[in-house]
Each structure stands twice: as structure tokens, then as C-alpha cells.
Amino acid sequence: MATTADTVTMTTGVTDDNPYNLYPANEGLASWDLVVVAVYFCAVICVGIFAMCRASRGTVSGYFLAGRSMTFLPVGASLFVSNIGSEHFIGLAGSGAAGGIGVGAWEFNAILLLQLLGWVFIPVYIACGTYTMPEYLKKRFGGSRLRVYFAFLSLILYIFTKCSVDLYTGGLFIQQSLKWDLYLSILVLILVTAILTITGGLTAVIYTDTLQAFLMVGGALTLMGMSFWKLGGYGELVRTFPQAIPTKLVANQTCGIPPSNAFQMLKEARDNDMPWAGFLFGQTPGSIWYWCSDQVIVQRALAAKSLSHAQGATLMAGFIKILPLFMMVMPGMISRVFYPNEVACADPEECYKICQSYAGCTNIAYPKLVLGVMPIGLRGLMMAVMIAALMSDLDSIFNSASTLFTIDVWKRFRKQATVRELMIVGRVFVLVMTAVAVAWVPVVKEMQGGQVFIYIQEVTNYLAPPVAAIFILGVVWPRINEQGVFWALMVALLTGVTRLVLVFIWPGAQKCGDVDDRPAIIKDFQYMYFAMLLFWMTVIVAAIVSYCTEAPEEKRLIRTTFWTRHDNRDREEVIMESKSGMHFDDISKATTNSMETGLDNPGLEKGESNSTLDSDKQKPVFTVSAESVNRYNPGNTSDEVEWESRPWYSKACDWLIGIHQSPGESQRQQEQQCRLLKITSLKQSRAAKIGLNIGLVFILSLGVALYCFWSYWQYVP
């Protein structure tokens, strides 16, 4: 053992230069790999063009909710892919390399919370006719301040925990594999993503997500299989991971040494990384915010053609969420075994030479594994997988953020905005988001130290648990009112932002050997337990203020809680809102007054018709009047005359972004409105309900069993 003043050089682990017969990881991608990437790009662009031509993009529901025409297969794939971005490939693998399988707990948590979305929240969102989550808050509680608060909070979280991290992790993979200029590569990816999102809307996003879901899972499973094969199986991983120690360590420090409980998922309650009590009672509220009230996720589920398809999609996505532990976390651990001196580097100066970060290089675990394990051609496949992950996440962010801004912010200042104006604003905001994302690249590059995935969770847990509390209370507790919710959010926001600022002021030890000089209130108060405090603080304040003030108006509870989702009374204020200005488009009224509840509204009229929507004698029968459809239809006669008189280049521009359809589209749009009345119902067939409930029981049992298995079972090879 040779010792210097600051470092210790020692012989550990495997001494053979290449005992696992790996490919040279520093060569990057070959020409054939780039051909595979190019083929992938062509395929995605073709899918986007197909969706652009097929999609109904001239209405708000068509652009933002894919016309609510998707089956469970593309919606389930989109739910998975919208969550699995480049930060998962880089972050999960990096955290796995640093600390073991504990980070996989977030993936198992999603298995359960996706079903909470499908069986509790989605029925309420559909019943009350919700486009965005802030819109639900306005329907449930009234007023505008909650809606604006949530919209701005979501946009802030998108920037700090989604755009920034996506750009860093995607850029890191490009830097490791292609050796291209980081900023040029990211700029090209963002522009392609923005073009797909602008031209196709959510339909293009979901179609490309479906393609990318198969690509991601297939490529990641291929890498997982090859990695385990080269290593010698799971038993060999258990044996060699504790020995994956770099040769150069910092004196008197444990940096670079794997934790002894690396193969235990949920650990002791006082553990600083994955305390079981903190995760179950603190992290879960933050995860509920993401899976049940985040615009990116809920927007996908709302695109389903019926409640049954939405629930089928959450079941499908839940089953797929079993895979990341095996195809992302464990490959990261294998990468540490293969490259202990690089992935697990401990000496800050050595780490900076490897990955330009003093904090450590575990984030390069996945790209390093791709380049070292996969042969030429398959490397290109995995590069395409990473591009797919980055593009999927970015297109989800761009589309959902533009939805929030257009409907929840712009409409407040432009109440009489036309469909054309809303469509233009939505597209322009995507471009603005693109510019902001590019501007964030230098900032992201400076934030590369530490574990990316844990950074996301920590920042989210300082802001999101109060929102989760409000949505849970709003859906299940009718007595909660707007005053209680608002003041609870203000108290929790002040508390969370204070903690967040303190964390940035006192970041603690940034590299191995630094002294952790943080105050005890920060150092010893783990962020998951702080999230638990925020959640219950919000619940208590909301309950106290609500009971000290007047109960919410009865009309606010109609179809906005789980217990009143089948309420057949009319929501008068919705009609008033629609009369004050176009309430987004006919689908909003159709969803707000769903066929199943049989309600009267300006878009429906009583009467007998061959197109009967409900045969129940106890409920009125409605048909869609042509007058009510044409009232908000952008394809009316005067518009058609104007369309014909415009120059060709103006028509082409409008067609590209979906503002105006050709004159023959009017009839098809009217037929679409009739169909939407049927598919926004909560009605389910008996067979579908039984089958879905059986699937629900099975997947919930499986999720609990997986937690217990990986938290208490100790494998002995």
C-alpha cells in the first residue's frame, strides 16, 4: 500500500486489465452506429409526420389531448416513456453504481401510484371535464389564485427538475459516446424535438412515444442481458460489487467503498439514503404529486378514449415499471464492477480528469457500460435509445408546459382568445421553452456533481408534497374549501422554499474529503422526513382553516370528488364560464357534462334522435345540435371563404401548425364532437370492469411483494 498526504493507492478487486473481455470504451461510436442513429431519426420523423397528417390538431383537445382517441396500448407506452427519460438511464444507473439497489424503490412505488391515478383520480378528472390540473383546482375550489399558483409552480419544477437535468444527462451521454460538441448536439436534439411537438401536438407525441417505448425497453433489456452474461450472472454481481473499489482512495475517508447494505432496498429508519419510514410516509406524497397530478403524466391518461382504456394503460405502465430495477439500476452496479477506477473514482482530482466533476463519476456508469459491452451496431441502437429517452422527455415537457401556459395563464389575460390565437400561443411557447432549455445548458454543466436522480427527488420534495395533499383532500374530502387550501399552500410554500434556499446556501460536502459544515437542522433532517412534515402540515392547516370558514358551495362538489363523480346535476357556473368566452372548445363542454350524467348544456339539446346517446329512461336523451357545434367550430362557412382566398404559402403555414383545416373538415369535426360525447363517459362494461379490477388486485399485490422481497430477503450466492 503506497500512501501520500491526501490519497491512498491500493490494490483491490480484479487486477487483470480486461478480465471480462470488454470492448474499448474510449473509442466512441463507429460509422455503422451512426447509421443506426440516422435510421432511428428517420423513423421518428416519419411517425411524427404520419401523426401530424392524421391528428385533429385544429382544436384545443386535438392538439393538447390527442382528441381523446387513444387506446390503452399507446397511452400506457406513453405513460412509461414520459417518465423514463435520459435522467433515468443516467440517474438510476449512477445511483445504483454509488449505493446499490435502493434507488429502485421509486420504480416500485410507481407501480402502486399509477393505479391510484387510474382508479381514483382519472374518473374524477374525466367526470368534471378537466384539461389541465390547475383547471381541476378551479372547478373544485373556485377562484383563480389556486389555478395560477399551480401553473407557475409546475412550470418552475419543469425548469429546475426536468429540462435542466434532461439536458445534462442527455449531453453527458453524447459527450461520452459521440465526442461531439456538447452544445451543438443538444441544440440539434432540442430543435428536432420541438419540431415534432409543434407540428403534431399530443397525438404525435404519443405515437412517437409508442415507438420509443419498444426501442427503450428492447435496447435496455439487450444491454442488461449482455452485461449479466459477461459478468457471470446475478450471483457474481453480489460477490463482486463489494469489491468494486478504486485503486486510489482519499485517506481516512469511505468515499469509493460500496455500502454494506447495497442489496437492501428499504433500509433502517435512520439511514441517510433510503430510510423505510421516510420513503413510505415522506417520499410517497411527492410521488403522488408526480403520478396523480403532474400535467405530463395526467395529460397522457386523459388522452385515452374511455375510462377503461385509461385504467388499462395504468396497469400496462405499472407492469413495465418492474423492469427499471433490472435494466437500469443493476447495469449501473455492473458498470462499477467493470470500471471501478472510473465509475467509482474517489479522489476529486482523478474524478475531474475522467468526467470533469470533482464530486464523482457514477453518472457515467450507463454510457460507459454501453461502449464497453455492446458491439458495433448495437452501440448505435443504445445511442438511439438514449436519444429516444431525451426526446420523449423533452417533447412531454414542451407539450404539457405549453398546455399549462396557454390554458391557465394566457386565457386569464385573453379571455376572448380565438382558437387560432390559442394554437399560435401554444406553438410559440414551445419555442420559448426551447430557448430557455438551451440557455440552461451552461448552468446544467455546473450542476453535474453528485447523483442526478437524488437531486431531482430532493428538490421536488421541498415543493411538491403540499400540492399532493391538496389534490388528495380535494378528491376525497368534500369539506375542504378554497380558503383552507390557499393558506395551507402558502404556509407550506414558505416552509419548503426556506429549506430549499438553505440547502443551496449550505450544500455540504461537495467532494470527498470536504467537511460537512451544514447546520444540524439541514444535515440531520433527511429530505424525505421533511417532505412528510410538509405534507401533514398542509393537511392540518387546510383542515383547520376550512372548518373555521364557510363550507364550499354545493355546485363546486358536482363531479369534482370521488364520491360525487356520478352526480347528474348541472354545473351552472361552467355554463356561465363558457358563455363569457370560448371555453377552450366543444370538448370541454362535452366532458364537463358527460353523456353518462345526462346533463343539459349549451352544446346539447333535449329531444329524440336516431343518434341517441343514452337509452336510460330515467335520464334525458340528448343530441348534438349543428348550431352549437358550429358556434365554436373554426371551420365554418365564412372561414372557408377566407381560406380559399388566401395565398398558398399562408395555407401551408397554417396547415403545418394545424390552425386551419381544409374546407372539407367541417363535417368531420362535427362527427368528432358526437363521438367525443360517448368516449368521455365513465360508463364501463361489466366484463371490462371485472377484468380491470382483477388486474388491479394482482398488480397491487405484486408491488407490495416486490418491496418486501428486496427489502428483507438477503441473497447468498
TrEMBL record:
Location in the cell: Apical cell membrane; Basolateral cell membrane
Membrane topology classification: Multi-pass membrane protein
Keywords tagged on the record: Cell membrane, Glycoprotein, Ion transport, Membrane, Phosphoprotein, Sodium, Sodium transport, Symport, Transmembrane, Transmembrane helix, Transport
InterPro entries per UniProt: Na/Glc_symporter_sf, Na/solute_symporter
GO cellular component, one term: apical plasma membrane
Domain of life: Eukaryota
UniProt GO BP: inositol metabolic process; myo-inositol transport
MF-aspect GO terms: D-glucose:sodium symporter activity
Segments passing through the bilayer: 29-53, 65-85, 105-127, 148-170, 182-206, 213-232, 274-292, 313-334, 369-390, 422-442, 462-478, 485-507, 527-549, 690-713
UniProt KW Lyase keyword: no
Region (Disordered): 595-616
Biased composition (Basic and acidic residues): 603-616
PROSITE patterns (UniProt xref): NA_SOLUT_SYMP_3 (PS50283)
UniProt family annotation: Belongs to the sodium:solute symporter (SSF) (TC 2.A.21) family.
Quaternary assembly: Interacts with KCNQ2 (via the pore module). Interacts with KCNQ1; this interaction is direct. Forms coregulatory complexes with ion channels KCNQ2-KCNQ3 and KCNQ1-KCNE2.
Name of protein: Sodium/myo-inositol cotransporter
Species whose genome carries this gene: Lingula anatina (Brachiopod)
Name of the gene encoding the protein in the UniProt record: LOC106151495
